[in-house]
Amino acid sequence: MTGHENSLAAGVDGAALKALIKDWARELGFAAAGVAGIDLGEAETGLADWLAAGFHGEMDYMARHGLKRARPAELVPGTLSVISLRMPYVAQAALSAADAVLADGERAYISRYAMGRDYHKVLRARLQQLAERITAQIGPFGHRVFVDSAPVLEVELARRAGLGWRGKHTLTLTREAGSLFFLGELYTDLALPPDEVVTEHCGDCQRCIEVCPTQAIVAPYKLDARRCISYLTIELKGAIPEEFRPLIGNRIYGCDDCQLVCPWNRFARSSDQPDFAVRNGLDTASLVELFAWSEDEFNARMAGSAIYRIGYERWLRNLAVGLGNAPRTPEILAALQARREHDSPLVREHVAWALAQHGHGTFA
């Protein structure tokens, strides 16, 4: 954050500026924006307990920054307010097809958020544009943009900014739009008036907890990331634990089960952002088709996608698990046999497991 003095000290009306910021946010494609204060003390205990339990798994960056995640002014000195924003990401057609893809063991299920362009780039650019509009209105001010890229308690900030409540699956939920949206934050040195916190509306519902294939939601509002399919297929760098492989099914990048079953997502808003439109037929692609991609093809097709982050080796690892859980067909067996001697020990291990699932060879 730059070292400017608080811009509101010059007589700018904070409430009026906040109203303008919300208007500009909508013009930039955000569905909603709100302002949160920086006292997140209530969230510190939960964060400390979660880290102490090891629920973050290999995501060392979460522990490395410690409680700075719950202390915006320590993370970014000079922060006085946080502008939190949400943007829907799913096309209604892709959402409607989700259950059918999950039910077809020969198809590859990819989390609906990863179908198009990398959301980090899209939201970061829009947040920077928002900062530029604020600068044009009041002059230079201190700010820093975050999009799932640093130790930020984005769900807690969204809650305090009035954008929704923390659902039992730990994601932000709203009555108006469910949970199928991205969050982004603008840390600022502006003393903006905070919005009112939204009340919770999960009630007695336990659907997200009951549907989780790996029982990663170990209690309401508490997720053991080490069991979560999104963690296993995206964040985990090594071998996927054998106990979870059969439970992953055909989910090769992320998992949406807890969101698909949530009653509030009946009200999910369809995205009108071209950047989030489905690319490369990822909403209906088969496991065999994707497993056949060469590394060059993966790099070319996934350039600009969030999926590119995991790299080709983990892409094949995940697909091998999906193929091991798929119906036994000549095409699936041939695809696995073709990768049996792959250069990567990680890929070979998961291919061997998949073939053993189909009664071809042993896995130990």
UniProtKB/TrEMBL annotation:
<feature type="binding site">
    <location>
        <position position="183"/>
    </location>
    <ligand>
        <name>cob(II)alamin</name>
    </ligand>
</feature>
<comment type="subunit">
    <text>Monomer.</text>
</comment>
<dbReference type="InterPro" id="IPR013542">
    <property type="entry name" value="QueG_DUF1730"/>
</dbReference>
<feature type="binding site">
    <location>
        <position position="202"/>
    </location>
    <ligand>
        <name>[4Fe-4S] cluster 1</name>
    </ligand>
</feature>
<dbReference type="Pfam" id="PF08331">
    <property type="entry name" value="QueG_DUF1730"/>
</dbReference>
<dbReference type="GO" id="GO:0052693">
    <property type="term" value="F:epoxyqueuosine reductase activity"/>
</dbReference>
<dbReference type="InterPro" id="IPR004453">
    <property type="entry name" value="QueG"/>
</dbReference>
<feature type="binding site">
    <location>
        <begin position="255"/>
        <end position="256"/>
    </location>
    <ligand>
        <name>cob(II)alamin</name>
    </ligand>
</feature>
<keyword id="KW-0004">4Fe-4S</keyword>
<feature type="active site" description="Proton donor">
    <location>
        <position position="148"/>
    </location>
</feature>
<dbReference type="InterPro" id="IPR017896">
    <property type="entry name" value="4Fe4S_Fe-S-bd"/>
</dbReference>
<dbReference type="Pfam" id="PF13484">
    <property type="entry name" value="Fer4_16"/>
</dbReference>
<keyword id="KW-0479">Metal-binding</keyword>
<comment type="similarity">
    <text>Belongs to the QueG family.</text>
</comment>
<feature type="binding site">
    <location>
        <position position="258"/>
    </location>
    <ligand>
        <name>[4Fe-4S] cluster 2</name>
    </ligand>
</feature>
<keyword id="KW-0963">Cytoplasm</keyword>
<feature type="binding site">
    <location>
        <position position="148"/>
    </location>
    <ligand>
        <name>cob(II)alamin</name>
    </ligand>
</feature>
<feature type="binding site">
    <location>
        <position position="262"/>
    </location>
    <ligand>
        <name>[4Fe-4S] cluster 1</name>
    </ligand>
</feature>
<feature type="binding site">
    <location>
        <position position="69"/>
    </location>
    <ligand>
        <name>cob(II)alamin</name>
    </ligand>
</feature>
<keyword id="KW-0560">Oxidoreductase</keyword>
<feature type="binding site">
    <location>
        <position position="208"/>
    </location>
    <ligand>
        <name>[4Fe-4S] cluster 1</name>
    </ligand>
</feature>
<feature type="binding site">
    <location>
        <position position="228"/>
    </location>
    <ligand>
        <name>[4Fe-4S] cluster 2</name>
    </ligand>
</feature>
<keyword id="KW-0671">Queuosine biosynthesis</keyword>
<feature type="binding site">
    <location>
        <position position="255"/>
    </location>
    <ligand>
        <name>[4Fe-4S] cluster 2</name>
    </ligand>
</feature>
<keyword id="KW-0411">Iron-sulfur</keyword>
<protein>
    <recommendedName>
        <fullName>Epoxyqueuosine reductase</fullName>
        <ecNumber>1.17.99.6</ecNumber>
    </recommendedName>
</protein>
<feature type="domain" description="4Fe-4S ferredoxin-type">
    <location>
        <begin position="193"/>
        <end position="222"/>
    </location>
</feature>
<comment type="pathway">
    <text>tRNA modification; tRNA-queuosine biosynthesis.</text>
</comment>
<feature type="binding site">
    <location>
        <position position="212"/>
    </location>
    <ligand>
        <name>[4Fe-4S] cluster 2</name>
    </ligand>
</feature>
<dbReference type="InterPro" id="IPR017900">
    <property type="entry name" value="4Fe4S_Fe_S_CS"/>
</dbReference>
<keyword id="KW-0819">tRNA processing</keyword>
<comment type="function">
    <text>Catalyzes the conversion of epoxyqueuosine (oQ) to queuosine (Q), which is a hypermodified base found in the wobble positions of tRNA(Asp), tRNA(Asn), tRNA(His) and tRNA(Tyr).</text>
</comment>
<feature type="binding site">
    <location>
        <position position="237"/>
    </location>
    <ligand>
        <name>tRNA</name>
    </ligand>
</feature>
<feature type="binding site">
    <location>
        <position position="230"/>
    </location>
    <ligand>
        <name>cob(II)alamin</name>
    </ligand>
</feature>
<keyword id="KW-0846">Cobalamin</keyword>
<keyword id="KW-0170">Cobalt</keyword>
<keyword id="KW-0408">Iron</keyword>
<feature type="binding site">
    <location>
        <position position="205"/>
    </location>
    <ligand>
        <name>[4Fe-4S] cluster 1</name>
    </ligand>
</feature>
